[in-house]
UniProtKB/TrEMBL annotation:
Pfam families: Inos-1-P_synth (PF01658), NAD_binding_5 (PF07994). Belongs to the myo-inositol 1-phosphate synthase family. InterPro entries: Myo-inos-1-P_Synthase, Myo-inos-1-P_Synthase_GAPDH, NAD(P)-bd_dom_sf. GO terms for biological process: inositol biosynthetic process; phospholipid biosynthetic process. SUPFAM superfamilies: Glyceraldehyde-3-phosphate dehydrogenase-like, C-terminal domain, NAD(P)-binding Rossmann-fold domains. Coiled coil: none annotated. This is Inositol-3-phosphate synthase. GO terms for molecular function: inositol-3-phosphate synthase activity.
């Protein structure tokens, strides 16, 4: 049965806390695509196809032609940052995209000036910005962000909005009593509770204003009972957490293959060097801890050592990230994987991924923005687990283990789209082709 999905009419505002390398690469990329200067490679919503019906029907439309997504020409960007640079200047400083490409879209980028950020240096010690809001209570700060959202919507004539966190990784935080209910959270805002982080203030403000929220960092943020409750109460989708881009992307591609072939793994050592603002922030041990927890959970969930002790009970998994300014946004990761096969004979896999962090993250951020807007128009609120495909540490319903296998995640995403549009779900069983053949022969 086809769900009712409201059409994507009017302008979609994409609001971004954190106009650094990822956000400026996303914004500049969309502007370049609009002008026909480049193609949106890596974006499933723009370049991906989906199979409908049986293989014999040969129906493979583009996803953007199958579901009613916002058009790139209807997107308006805005955001907050602790630095005052407009998006053109910020993109030039990030040094992700060529200056020649940025100059071709300079007027559009210069017009985007960040709003003052809701900032608390305790959560990101290695950043020193002056473009920050002053406030008395965190309730006051949340109200200021809500006012920013309303003003942006009115000024830009947006019919709908989404918020995508592209800001820094905050210090590691566990869920506390202030996060257990929306009543406790709102009392915490009034009382300046130290366990309410800036990202939570943005998320709260977005949800109160009817704006879906996507968490692109490993911060706790919406992964709490209070904000899940608020998302359901206000009818808003939420998705998180932590964009899956470089090394973890490789893990979720390779580990399922090893598991599928029942090959054992004794050790997986991962190290990275990174020189952008993300690398600077993660140079602080408290911030790295947040990222480490996000990155470490992946292999356990794919290999499930408790269910496969002969293959994975001795798995030693170590993750390192080192700040290395000369590399800038060009993150380099090395993986050493000690595997074993038939009769326990050892083998090794070595991966050296010379990736570009923001080039991989920008299309992920775009897809998450467009898909959460779609979810809102389809009446889907709360946790959107079908968007796990894009995330390192997928948020799930309480008591549910996340699915990290990228191929299963893709099947879940595509089947959600098929369900939304009243198409048959695809199981890849394939037996019916052969049963039909047998029946036709009798």
């Amino acid at each position: 049965m086809k769900e009712y999905v409201e059409p994507a009419e009017g302008k979609l505002g994409i609001l971004i806390p954190g106009l650094g390398a990822v956000a400026t690469t996303l914004i500049a990329g969309v502007e370049a695509v609009k002008k026909g200067l480049a193609k949106p490679i890596g974006s499933l919503t723009q370049m991906g196809s989906i199979r409908l019906g049986k293989r014999t029907e040969s129906r493979y439309p583009k996803i953007k032609d199958f579901v009613p997504l916002a058009e790139l020409n209807d997107i308006v960007f805005g955001g907050w940052d602790v630095y005052e640079d407009n998006v053109f200047d910020a993109a030039m400083k990030a040094k992700v995209l060529d200056a020649e490409l940025l100059r071709a879209i300079q007027p559009e980028l210069e017009a985007l000036v960040p709003m003052k950020a809701a900032f608390d240096k305790r959560y990101v010690k290695n950043l020193d910005g002056t473009n920050v809001k002053s406030f008395t209570t965190k309730k006051d700060l949340a109200d200021q962000v809500r006012e920013d959202i309303r003003n942006f919507k009115e000024k830009n004539g947006c019919t709908r909005m989404v918020m995508v966190w592209c800001g820094s990784t905050e210090i590691y935080q566990k869920e506390g009593s202030v996060h257990h209910s929306i009543a406790a959270f709102e009392a915490g805002l009034e009382n300046n509770d130290e366990h309410i982080s800036p990202s939570m203030i943005y998320a709260y403000a977005a949800l109160k204003e009817g704006v879906p929220y996507v968490n692109g960092a490993p911060n706790l943020t919406v992964d709490t009972p209070a904000l899940v409750e608020l998302a359901k109460e206000t009818g808003n989708p939420i998705a998180g957490k932590d964009f899956k881009t470089g090394q973890t992307l490789m893990k979720t591609i390779i580990a399922p293959g090893l598991s599928a072939r029942a090959l054992g793994v004794r050790g997986w050592f991962s190290t990275n060097i990174l020189g952008n603002r993300d690398g600077l922030v993660l140079d602080d041990p408290d911030n790295f801890k947040t990222k480490e927890v996000s990155k470490l959970s992946v292999l356990d969930e794919i290999f499930r050592p408790e269910a496969n002790p002969d293959l994975y009970s001795e798995l030693y998994h170590k993750v390192r990230i080192n700040y290395y300014p000369p590399h800038g946004d060009n993150k380099e990761s090395w993986d050493n994987i000690d595997i074993f096969g038939w009769l326990g004979y050892p083998m090794q896999i070595k991966i050296n991924f010379l990736c570009r962090d923001s080039i991989l993250a920008a299309p992920v951020a775009l897809d998450l923005a467009l898909f959460t807007d779609l979810a809102k128009r389809a009446g889907m609120s709360g946790i959107q687990e079908w968007l796990s495909f894009y995330l390192k540490s997928p948020q799930t319903a309480e008591g549910l283990h996340p699915e990290h296998d990228i191929f299963k995640q893709l099947m879940k995403l595509q089947n959600t789209l098929r369900h939304m549009m009243g198409e048959d779900l695809i199981t890849h069983l394939g037996l019916d082709y052969y049963q039909d053949l047998v029946e036709s022969m009798h």
